[in-house]
Design goal:
The complex is a heterodimer of chains A (341) and B (56). Chain A has 341 residues and is an alpha/beta fold. Chain A has helices at 10-22, 53-56, 62-67, 132-148, 161-172, 193-206, 253-257, 297-311; strands at residues 2-6, 27-31, 38-39, 58-60, 71-73, 76-82, 87-92, 99-101, 104-107, 111-113, 153-157, 176-180, 209-211, 216-222, 225-230, 238-239, 241-244, 248-250, 266-267, 279-281, 286-287. Chain A folds into 2 domains: 2-111 and 249-311, FAD/NAD(P)-binding domain (3-Layer(bba) Sandwich); 115-246, FAD/NAD(P)-binding domain (3-Layer(bba) Sandwich), CATH 3.50.50. In chain B, a hairpin with a 5-residue loop joins strand 1 (6-9) and strand 2. Chain B is globular and about 25 Å long. The model of chain B has no long low-confidence stretch (mean pLDDT 91). The chains are: A alpha/beta (341), B mainly beta (56). The interface between A and B is medium-sized, with 17 and 10 residues.
């Protein structure tokens, strides 16, 4: 039995490790674009207040996973799935392979940063914050500015969960931060109105500048500063850098090209199975029949452990979401009400 | 000065503080790390006990 997993995040690796412990005879291969190792994405949110993050974020190196019986082909991209032949076309990577067979395929590519289409024209004027690669770029930039003057000023576009975590961490690291949020309250998808207000007050007391109801139009480089241009206003303050944090976009392209059913994510049934019986999807690329995409670690780990046990024949009941209480990593802030999910 | 330690989850950064315990999972305040059963998991992300590291 050859199980191939695409993606080396929490979803893919938790599944691979569990599958290996349940069935030592299964041949498990993980294909990944990453080259740094297996890391936990939520830890990125503390990426500026922690000094040794580039090393400490790595939970296991790919070499360690190999030793544990999981074959990793890193720095590689899957470009096509041939569902009839059950083969994948892959490019790049350490192994010089053009195609790879699978008996069962697990899609766990996760999600990319969502960039609102109007911003695409200005793509070289801002950063995004979605991966260790993004974090390293940001840290490098931050370091280079700090070498020359004192503190940095950032504009963060988006006051959702990630935008708020990022603002909090940059603030904790000693930088000036302004959040431009399109809505009338922060984290409106996760918090009740009262907690949004508490969060706003918390940020204000820490010196984070919050601008609500902002229709950001574009960005403009002037010397080594960037301006954020707002509809109907001539705000012309320059920032050292802009980070666009407007949500996530499941990586559905490969599945879509292969004729799998997709919506916002890859459509799966309650057994995490796509419309191809040999292909499963989990994590924040998968969209369940309840229309939800489970993007928090607790349910993603639960999906991974469930899927391994299910494919091993240990359980027959469908996956059901565990009880979980997501929590934003905003330094010093605790919501009074449970998060909405 | 207390002798309680703190342990941090390497998956989600959740901190287990021995002084506070984890009352929601039935772990009383003051419970030492070695006294927590092996099947206890991180209350925030579900990671196993072995994913935690002692904080400096």
């Amino acid at each position: 039995m050859r199980i191939v997993i695409i993606g080396s995040g929490i979803a893919g690796i938790t599944f691979a490790e569990k599958m290996h412990t349940l069935n030592q005879g299964a041949e498990i291969t993980v294909l990944t674009k990453e080259t740094d190792g297996y890391y936990s994405r939520p830890i990125l949110s503390h990426g500026f207040s922690k000094q040794d993050i580039e090393q400490s974020i790595i939970m296991k190196t790919f070499a360690q996973l190999e030793q544990n019986g999981i074959h990793i082909i890193s720095g590689t991209e899957v470009t096509a799935i041939d569902r009839k032949q059950r083969t994948l076309t892959i490019s790049g990577g350490d192994d010089v392979v053009a195609t790879l067979n699978y008996d069962q395929l697990i899609l766990a590519q996760g999600s990319a940063a969502f960039i609102p289409p109007p911003f695409l024209t200005y793509r070289n004027q801002f950063y995004v914050f979605n991966s260790l690669t993004d974090l390293k770029l940001l840290r490098k930039f931050r370091h280079s500015v700090r070498e020359h003057n004192k503190s940095l000023s950032w504009a963060i576009i988006g006051g959702g969960l990630i935008g708020c975590e990022l603002a909090s961490d940059l603030n904790a690291a000693g930088d000036q931060v302004t959040i431009f949020h399109a809505m009338d309250r922060l984290m409106e998808r996760q918090l009740v109105a009262e907690d949004s207000l508490n969060l706003l007050k918390h940020f204000q007391s820490c010196g984070v500048n919050i601008l609500l109801d902002q229709a950001v139009q574009s960005f403009e480089h002037q010397g080594d500063k960037v301006s954020v241009l707002i509809k109907d206003t001539a705000e012309n303050k320059g920032y050292d850098a802009v980070i666009v944090s407007c949500g996530f976009k499941p990586r559905t392209e490969l599945a879509e090209d292969a004729g799998l059913e997709t919506s916002r994510g890859i459509r799966v049934n309650n057994f995490l199975q796509t419309n191809d019986e040999n292909i499963y999807a989990l994590g924040d690329v998968a969209q369940l029949p309840d229309e939800k995409i489970y993007a928090f670690i607790m349910p993603i780990r639960s999906q991974a452990l469930w899927l391994a046990a299910y494919l091993n024949g240990d359980i027959t009941e469908p996956w059901s979401p565990p009880v979980f209480n997501p929590k934003a990593k905003v330094h010093g802030f605790t919501a009074e009400h449970p998060y909405i999910f | 000065m207390s002798n309680f330690n703190k342990y941090q989850c390497s998956v989600c950064d959740h901190i287990y503080d021995e002084a506070l315990g984890d009352p929601d999972s039935g772990i009383e305040p003051g419970t030492l790390w070695e006294d927590i059963l092996e099947y206890w998991v991180c209350p925030e992300c579900g990671a196993e006990k072995s994913a935690f590291v002692l904080m400096p």
